[in-house]
Write a structure and sequence with these properties.
The complex is a heterodimer of chains A (about 525) and B (about 375).
Chain A (H helix, E strand, L loop, with lengths): L1 E10 L2 E11 L4 E5 L6 H8 L7 E6 L2 E3 L4 H6 L2 E4 L11 H6 L11 H15 L14 H14 L4 E5 L7 H16 L3 E6 L2 H7 L2 E6 L2 E7 L5 H9 L17 E11 L5 E11 L2 E6 L6 H8 L7 E6 L2 E2 L5 H6 L2 E4 L3 H5 L6 H5 L10 E2 L2 E2 L1 H14 L16 H18 L11 H14 L7 E5 L7 H16 L3 E5 L3 H7 L2 E6 L2 E7 L5 H8 L6
Parallel strand pairs in A: 3-8, 3-9, 6-7, 7-8, 13-20, 13-21, 16-19, 19-20
Antiparallel strand pairs in A: 1-2, 1-4, 4-5, 9-10, 11-12, 11-14, 14-15, 17-18, 21-22
Chain B lengths: L1 E8 L5 H25 L4 H13 L2 H26 L7 H18 L6 H30 L3 H23 L20 E3 L2 E2 L1 H18 L1 H11 L1 H6 L4 H28 L10 H11 L4 H24 L4 H23 E8 L19 H5 L2 H5 L2
Antiparallel strand pairs in B: 1-4, 2-3
Helix pairs in contact in B: 1-13, 2-3, 2-12, 3-7, 3-10, 3-11, 3-12, 4-5, 4-6, 4-10, 4-11, 5-6, 5-10, 7-8, 7-12, 11-12, 12-13
Classes of the chains: A alpha/beta (about 525), B mainly alpha (about 375).
Chain lengths: ~525, ~375
């Protein structure tokens, strides 16, 4: 009943959808499977009119349609439940359902709406009180409101964007029941996910997207989680970097039974124990949202640790601040480049200096030396080949790859100063004194640098990706420790020495990178225990 | 076909736009004002000329402009400092008022106990401390309990103003007057430089230069800018947001408190009604128009003072009702402020074909209501959380 033909969508630097074909039949549940960044959400956003495709067409009941807005989509009976709900917290369920109706009367009869909602929620097993205020509801209940809203408006095609990410197992079962009722009534559902077990549990057919392309469309009954895992993550090896054998030394980072919460206050890490040695890259594999984000943040002092111990360079840093972590030799390439890693409204030179500004030669006694910051920036721009018109250009005007290079340059430079004696021969005696004072306070001399890199090459082109990976290996070869978080199994296998797989906040297992094959890793990432 | 209107955030703000937009806004301002003047039966050209002459055309006018620019400049600087880190301190009015109270209190009541020469510096210092404490309360609440600062700073204005009224109507009232304290002793006066303009102007100019240097050449200024632009990045970079909020607000409040102190010591020479006529609120407009640049604050404060003095002048010279002058001042400001929208956003006008029957008629761009940046974000970012 619905077809997408040759859909192509480009964003600056990436092709999010590359000639995607998708069919949806009446009364079926279609799973759209793929890694983060594979183009699943983009494709669905095109279907509901949030994005316009650069090429391709959409057919509904064999008739070509133009979808310019969610309202157009709604008229065609297509509705989407986003990951971030679009509800007004201070209004009731019924009021939220009425909001945005095309033929909204001036004074809606809320009692009628509430009555119809009760009927619908009983029929689909979506228990919600129409008179409750949204802010009183749990996340799972809010999701039900979103679904009811679409059903109320007569949607025949329901798109759910990773619906189970916010649900408890019981709520997920109820969702499954709802999907069955939908099917019986002849309504179709597209179900975005990256979890194999959900595909098997809920869907009739599955469409696998990888790097913007459809790699397979299959009947769910004719496939296995193992095959799906390979289809989803297995990709051609782009290139191999030459890697010298690792020579691991003393432990630099030690995590003991770490527990931590995510931003919503739910457990994200549940007893993680890890050790990273000097001269070693430990890779963290896993599908996004299984605790990687929180892991990076607890090591760098950004997120509090609920339980467990964190040791860096033989010092306990369980309750450390971000500054403590920086002073202990931790560098961090965060996953969110614009939101956390850089300040878009400030110059490239300023961004490059954002960690070095506290200490000589850039800063001294609370003052900044603008000339030295400028020179420092020139050297770094040259060394890391950052393409910027001038050092004074604002970071937000750079391309994604160059923003990442700016962050990389800043963090690697910091790494290289860790453990270096402050009193280099060129420093004047006065500055040497400042250096000594600082080292006494922070005892930085016996530190080994630790680099925490989260998705360092995500979204970068081949050249930039290679540069990033080489830099990371250079640091390893200089006997520094690296914690590399990535979803790209090729990256992990070519850069990391050992790979730990994170699933639902626990370490599923740690394998040597040489011995790891994609299939085993894929299964572990899906939470399927080999044994 | 119908017209769809939407705003698109400019990719970059051109130098031409930063210059052209305020000039164009000013032209629109004059036009709006002209309509109002015509409606009140006055000749706009004559009136504008009178305004200009009233403010800048005579030594007396100029000195009055200086008088008004002093508190505007100081509070504008205080507000700009807080705004740079996106702390919405709209409490400059209260901080100024308490600064005035503290300065007057020291000048009036400590003279008996201390050598005369100490009183002036002590009174100024007291004004700063009072302003700092008054701003410090919301800052600490924000830093520790995340209490919204717009409400607390605004509410504390009323407390400060009413408390000062209590003092000069009741507790400190000079015998024989309805309101107002005794005049402060002469050795506590801030010297005057021209007409009623007093040495407070030097505080304003020096602080503007100092803040400019602080923003550019100090670690602290650098950290404030990072916090204001991206608090998440600031935290990641190891910058303590809570401590910086408190320190910045103490300084911000101290500057506004200084404004109150010099008003009392240099101009009124007693605590009385009309110490502040909303300077602390006008300061918010000044800080914005100066784009939070301290040097810009000096110029904008001066122009704003000119507008205030000129507006007062036409009431007398053109025999227009007092309210017209005030309304005119407001009319002139609105396009200037609205103009800043066009500096950061471009207007998207385009024709859209009428869809099948009833296309959305909400006048927005097709699609969403999402921020334009979101539209370009690759999927990975949205789906990553």
């Amino acid at each position: 009943m619905l077809r997408m033909r040759g859909i192509t969508k480009r964003f600056p630097g990436v092709v999010a959808n590359d000639h995607v074909d998708l069919d949806l039949y009446q009364g079926e549940v279609l799973a759209l499977l793929g890694e983060n960044g594979a183009g699943k959400s983009t494709l669905m956003n095109i279907l509901v009119g949030l994005y316009r495709p650069d090429a391709g067409e959409i057919l509904v009941r064999d008739e070509r349609v133009e979808i310019h807005s969610p309202r157009d989509a709604a008229e065609l009976g297509v509705g989407m439940v986003h990951q971030n709900f679009m509800l007004v917290p201070t209004m009731t369920v019924a009021q939220n359902v009425v909001l945005g109706l095309a033929d909204l009367p001036l004074v809606p009869k809320l009692s009628e709406v509430e009555e119809r909602l009760r009927v619908l929620s009983a029929r689909y097993g979506l228990k919600v009180d129409p008179q409750a205020y949204i802010w009183q509801l749990s996340v799972g209940e809010q999701q039900r409101v979103e679904i009811l809203k679409l059903i109320y408006r007569g949607a025949g095609v329901l798109i759910l964007d990773e619906p189970t990410a916010v649900l408890t197992p019981q709520e997920a079962d109820e969702l499954g029941h709802m999907l069955e009722v939908m099917q019986v009534e002849g309504k179709s559902t597209i179900f975005i996910t990256h979890k194999m077990n959900e595909v098997v549990a809920f869907s009739d057919r599955v469409c696998v997207l990888r790097q913007g392309k459809v790699v397979a469309t299959k009947q769910t009954t004719g496939t296995t989680p193992r095959e799906l895992a390979r289809l989803m993550v297995g990709r051609e090896v782009l290139f191999r970097i030459e890697k010298k054998p690792a020579t691991p030394g003393d432990p630099v980072l030690v995590l003991r039974d770490i527990h931590a919460l995510n931003d919503k206050g739910l457990p994200a890490l549940r007893g993680v124990s890890l050790t990273v040695h000097e001269g070693e890259v430990l890779g963290i594999a896993g599908v996004a949202g299984n605790g990687q984000h929180e892991l990076a943040e607890i090591v760098t002092g950004i997120r509090p640790i609920k339980q467990g111990e964190l040791w860096i360079n033989r010092r306990e840093l369980t309750d450390c601040t971000p500054l403590d972590a920086i002073r202990s030799g931790v560098s961090h390439i965060p996953a969110d480049r614009m939101g956390m890693g850089s300040v878009g409204g400030m110059a490239v030179a300023d961004n490059l200096a954002m960690k070095a500004y506290r200490d000589p030669p850039l800063g001294q006694r609370g003052l900044l030396n603008r000339t030295r910051i400028q020179d420092f920036a020139r050297v770094m721009i040259e060394a890391f080949q950052i393409a910027t018109p001038t050092p004074q250009t604002l970071v937000k005007f750079l391309s994604g790859g160059n923003i990442q290079k700016t962050i990389l340059a800043r963090e690697i430079e910091r790494l290289e100063t860790v453990g270096q004696p402050e009193a280099a021969p060129s420093l004047t005696s006065e500055r040497r004194q400042i250096g000594r004072r600082r080292s006494r306070r922070h005892a930085a001399d016996d530190c080994v640098g630790l680099l925490v890199a989260a998705y360092p090459s995500r979204g970068l082109d081949v050249g930039a990706t290679e540069a990033v990976r080489k830099r990371i290996l250079e640091q390893r070869d200089a006997q520094r420790a690296v914690l590399l978080i990535s979803e790209d199994l090729d990256e992990l296998r070519s850069v990391a020495d050992r790979i730990a797989v994170l699933y639902e906040g626990r370490i599923m297992g740690i394998v040597s990178a040489d011995a790891a094959d994609i299939e085993t890793l894929g299964l572990m990432m899906a939470g399927i225990d080999e044994a | 076909m119908k017209l769809s209107v939407s705003f698109r955030k400019r990719e970059s703000v051109s130098r031409r736009a930063t210059l052209l937009v305020p000039l164009a806004s000013f032209a629109v301002s004059l036009l709006f004002g002209a309509v109002l003047l015509l409606l009140s039966g006055a000749n706009p050209f004559v009136t504008y000329a009178a305004m200009f002459r009233g403010a800048f055309g005579s030594g007396h006018g100029l000195s009055e402009v200086l008088v008004k620019s002093i508190p505007l400049m100081l509070t504008g600087l205080g507000v700009a400092l807080a705004f740079r880190m996106r702390f919405w301190n709209i409490g400059a009015e209260g901080q100024l008022t308490l600064g005035a109270v503290a300065a007057a209190g020291v000048a009036l009541y400590w003279s008996q106990h201390l050598p005369a020469w100490t009183i002036l510096p002590l009174a100024i210092l007291a004004g700063c401390v009072a302003g700092a404490l008054w701003a410090g309360v919301p800052a600490v609440l924000k830093a520790t309990l995340n209490v919204d600062e717009t409400l607390t700073t605004l509410m504390l204005n009323y407390v400060a103003v009413l408390y000062s009224e209590h003092l000069y109507y009741v507790v400190w009232r000079a015998p024989g007057y309805n309101s107002g304290t005794e005049r402060i002793p002469e050795y506590a006066w801030l010297p005057r430089i021209a007409g009623r303009a007093h040495a407070g102007i030097f505080f304003g100019l020096a602080l503007a230069l100092l803040l400019w240097a602080v923003f550019r050449y100090t670690r602290w200024g650098f950290e404030l800018k990072i916090i204001g632009q991206n608090p998440t990045a600031a935290r990641y970079l190891g910058i303590s947001i809570a401590r910086n909020i408190v320190v910045a607000l103490l300084v911000s409040g101290a500057i506004s408190g200084l404004a109150g102190a010099v008003e009392v010591l240099g101009l009124a020479r007693r605590l009385q009604q009309g110490i502040s006529v909303g300077y602390g609120y006008t300061a918010i407009i000044i800080a914005w128009m100066a784009q939070l640049n301290p040097i810009g604050v000096v110029f904008v404060a001066f122009l704003m003072a000119g507008l205030l003095v000129g507006g007062d002048q036409i009431q007398m010279r053109m025999r227009l009702p007092a309210s017209v002058g005030v309304v005119l001042q407001g009319m002139l400001l609105i396009p200037l402020l609205a103009g800043s929208l066009f500096r950061d956003y471009a207007l998207d006008l385009r024709k859209v074909p009428d869809g099948k029957g009833d296309a959305p008629a909400d006048g927005r761009a097709p699609a969403d209501g999402r921020a334009p940046e979101d539209r370009r974000a690759p999927e990975g970012r949205q789906a990553s959380e």
